[in-house]
From TrEMBL:
Name of protein: DUF1858 domain-containing protein
GO terms for biological process, alphabetical: aerobic respiration
Keywords, comma-separated and alphabetical: Membrane, Transmembrane, Transmembrane helix
Entry superkingdom: Bacteria
Length: 579
C-alpha cells in the first residue's frame, strides 16, 4: 500500500498491522476505536506535532521489514468514557434546559413582561444548563482528551462512575426541587448541592492526578486546565452557599445580585479556561493555521484570572457600595481585553497556512468553531456597553440577558457542537452520522441565537410587542437546532464498528494468506497448535477478534519467527484429521 498524505490511518493499519507499532511510538493511535483513527496521516501528523516525512519513512521501513522479530502489536480498544456524560447532557438540555427555556421565553413574550415568571424557574433552567448541559459535556470530553494530550493513562477511572452518579443526582434534585414550594423537601436542595460537591471534587481529583502523573513537558494549555479546575471547585462551594441560603431562609429564589455574578464566575472561570485550553492544543491543526501566539494567550490567562474574583465580588456588593459599583463597571474592560487578546493569540480569523490544503477531510466543524468566536466578540462588546446603561435598570437587565445568551449559546454551545462534531467521530474512528444535519444545526442555532440576542436588546430599548414576539419564537428555533444536533450526535455515538473481514467460505486448506481468525473460528481445535508454536496472544479472544482478522499466517509467522512451512503442515494435518 503506497502511503501518501491522504492515506487513512485505519486503512493502513488494516492492511499493514505492523505499522501500529510506529503509530503507537508517536502516540497516534490514542483515539479511533478498534480499527484506529479515521484520519489522513498528514492531518494527524500536524495535530500531534509529528514530522510527516520522518513518520512516513518509519512506516515504510516497518512495512518493508514486515514486522520482523516480535514487534509488539497493541490492541485497539474504543474508550467510551465520555459517552454517558455527553448523552445525559443532551437529555438534560432537551428537557429542563432549552425546552424549559423556550417555554419561559414564550411566556415572557406573551406577557410582554420579563418579571412575569418566577425567577426560581429561570434559576432552575440556568443551573440545569450550566452544570448539566455545559458541565457534563466538558467533564466527559476532559476525561477522554486530557489523558491523551498529556500522553498518560486516566487515573482512578473507576471513580468516574461514582462522579457521574453524584452529579446526576445533584442536578435532578436541584432542577426539580428549587422552584417547588414543598417546604418538607427543602433539605433535598441542600443534599443536591452536597452531591454536586462530591462529584466535582472527584472530577477535580481524577483530572489533577492525571495531569500530575504525566511525564510530558507541560504545555501552555496546562495552566488553563488547572485554573479551570480551581474555578469549578470555587463555583461549587458558592453553589453550596446559595442552596444553604435557600434552605435556611426557606425561599425559592437566590438573590439576583449573587446568582448572576456566580453564573459569570462559573462561565468565565471554569468553562472559558477549559475551552481555551483545548483550543490552544487543537485549533491550529483543526483550522490549519499557525500555532498560538504564546504572549497574547498568557496575557489572557493572567488578566482573566485576576479579573474574575474582582468581577464577582464587585457585582455582589454593587447594590450596597458605590466603590463596588464602580469596580463592577470598570472590571469589564480588562475582561473584554483578555477575550480580544485570546482571539488575537489563537489566530482564529487568520488565513490558513495551507499546509493541509491537499488533504481531503471533513472540515464542516471549522465554521462552527470560528462562528463561536464571533459570538465571543458580541459578548465582549455587550459587556463593554453594560457600564454605560443605568445600574439595575430594565435596559441593563435586557442587555445582561442578551450577554448571557450570546456567551452560553453563541460561544459555549456552538463550541461544544463544533468540537463534538469533530472529536466524537475521531474518538470512534468513523464519520459524523449526517453532515446535512450538522449544517442544519449550524444555520438554525445561529438564526435562533441572533434573533434572541438582538430582539432582547431591542425589547430593552423600546419594548415593542414585535420584538417580544421574535424573541419568543427564537427559543423554539434553538430547540429545533439542538434537537437535530442531539439526534445526529446520538446516532454517531451509537455506531459500533467491527474490524472488517471479508466473508470466507469453508476452509479446506490453510495457506500463507489465510487469516488466523478464520482458522480458529472454523477449526477451534487449531488454537492449541497456535499456542504450541508460541502465538500466546491468540489465547486472548479480543486479540483474535481484532488482530486475528487482519493478520495472515504469513504475517503471524514472520512476526514470531516461526517456520511457516512446518506450521502450515501441522495446521492442515489438524483440520484434515477432522474430516
Ligand atoms: C438555547 C435556548 C435557551 C433558551 C430559550 C433560554 C431561555 C432563557 C430565559 C427565557 C431566561 C430568563 C431571561 C433572561 O435572563 O434572559 C434564561 C436565563 C438563563 N439561561 Fe437560558 N436559555 C437557553 C439556553 C441557555 C444555555 C445554553 C445556558 C447555559 C449554558 C443557559 C443559561 C441560563 C442562565 C444561567 C440564566 C439565568 C441568568 C441570570 O439570571 O443571570 N440558557 N434562559
Amino acid at each position: 500500500m503506497e502511503i501518501n498524505r491522504n492515506t487513512i490511518i485505519k486503512d493502513l493499519i488494516e492492511s499493514h498491522p505492523e505499522t501500529l507499532a510506529v503509530f503507537k511510538k508517536y502516540n497516534l493511535v490514542i483515539a479511533g476505536g478498534v480499527r484506529g483513527p479515521n484520519e489522513p496521516i498528514a492531518f494527524f501528523a500536524k495535530a500531534h506535532e509529528v514530522n510527516y516525512d520522518i513518520l512516513v519513512q518509519e512506516l515504510n521501513e516497518a512495512i518493508a521489514k514486515g514486522g520482523g522479530e516480535a514487534v509488539e502489536i497493541p490492541t485497539l480498544e474504543e474508550d467510551k468514557i465520555y459517552e454517558k456524560f455527553v448523552k445525559t447532557a443532551i437529555i438534560l438540555t432537551l428537557t429542563v434546559g432549552v425546552t424549559f427555556g423556550a417555554i419561559i421565553l414564550s411566556y415572557i413574550a406573551v406577557k410582554l413582561n420579563f418579571n412575569s415568571i418566577y425567577y426560581s424557574f429561570i434559576q432552575a433552567h440556568g443551573h440545569a444548563q450550566i452544570f448539566g448541559w455545559v458541565g457534563l459535556c466538558i467533564m466527559g470530553f476532559a476525561l477522554y482528551i486530557i489523558p491523551r494530550v498529556k500522553n498518560t493513562e486516566l487515573r482512578h477511572r473507576n471513580l468516574t462512575n461514582i462522579c457521574y452518579g453524584f452529579i446526576i443526582s445533584g442536578l435532578v434534585l436541584r432542577t426539580i426541587l428549587q422552584p417547588a414550594p414543598h417546604h418538607a423537601f427543602r433539605f433535598l436542595v441542600l443534599i443536591s448541592a452536597i452531591c454536586e460537591i462530591v462529584a466535582i471534587c472527584l472530577f477535580a481529583f481524577i483530572i489533577l492526578q492525571t495531569i500530575f502523573a504525566s511525564k510530558e513537558k507541560p504545555g501552555i494549555f496546562d495552566k488553563f486546565f488547572k485554573a479551570g479546575i480551581i474555578w469549578l471547585l470555587i463555583s461549587t462551594l458558592i453553589n453550596f452557599g446559595m442552596t444553604l441560603h435557600l434552605y435556611k431562609h426557606d425561599v425559592l429564589e437566590i438573590p439576583k445580585f449573587i446568582f448572576s455574578p456566580f453564573v459569570h464566575l462559573y462561565l468565565f472561570g471554569f468553562v472559558f479556561m477549559f475551552i481555551f485550553a483545548i483550543n490552544i492544543r487543537t485549533v491550529f491543526a483543526f483550522l490549519d493555521i499557525k500555532p498560538v501566539r504564546e504572549k497574547a494567550v498568557n496575557l489572557t490567562f493572567w488578566v482573566l484570572n485576576i479579573s474574575i474574583p474582582i468581577y464577582f465580588i464587585a457585582h455582589v456588593l454593587a447594590h450596597r457600595s458605590i466603590i463596588a459599583l464602580r469596580f463592577s463597571q470598570g472590571i469589564v474592560f480588562p475582561i473584554a481585553f483578555a477575550l480580544f487578546s485570546f482571539i488575537y493569540g489563537l489566530r482564529i480569523f487568520e488565513r490558513s497556512t495551507k499546509e493541509l490544503q491537499d488533504v481531503v477531510m471533513d472540515r464542516s466543524y471549522a465554521k462552527t468553531i470560528r462562528t463561536a468566536y464571533l459570538w465571543l466578540i458580541v459578548t465582549a462588546v455587550i459587556l463593554l456597553i453594560m457600564p454605560f446603561l443605568g445600574y439595575d435598570s430594565d435596559i441593563q437587565h435586557r442587555f445582561h440577558g442578551s450577554l448571557n445568551h450570546a456567551v452560553t449559546v453563541g460561544f459555549i454551545t456552538m463550541m461544544i457542537i463544533g468540537y463534538a462534531s469533530k472529536m466524537i467521530p475521531t474518538f470512534k474512528g468513523i464519520d459524523m452520522y449526517s453532515l446535512r444535519l450538522s449544517n442544519m444545526t449550524f444555520i438554525l442555532l445561529n438564526t435562533g441565537c441572533f434573533l434572541r440576542v438582538f430582539s432582547q436588546i431591542l425589547v430593552g430599548i423600546n419594548g415593542k410587542p414585535l420584538f417580544y414576539a421574535v424573541m419568543g419564537a427564537s427559543g423554539w428555533i434553538e430547540l429545533a437546532a439542538l434537537s437535530i444536533f442531539g439526534y445526529n450526535l446520538w446516532k454517531t455515538m451509537n455506531i459500533t464498528q467491527e474490524v472488517k473481514s471479508p466473508a470466507v467460505g469453508k476452509l479446506t486448506e490453510i495457506t500463507k494468506d489465510t487469516k488466523v481468525f478464520d482458522i480458529v473460528e472454523q477449526y477451534p481445535e487449531t488454537l492449541q497448535v497456535f499456542l504450541d508454536f508460541g502465538f500466546s496472544q491468540m489465547a486472548n479472544p479480543v486479540m483474535r477478534k481484532t488482530m486475528g482478522k487482519v493478520a495472515s499466517v504469513e504475517m503471524a509467522t514472520k512476526m514470531h519467527n516461526v517456520d511457516i512451512e512446518k506450521f502450515l503442515h501441522v495446521l492442515n494435518d489438524k483440520i484434515n484429521s477432522k474430516k
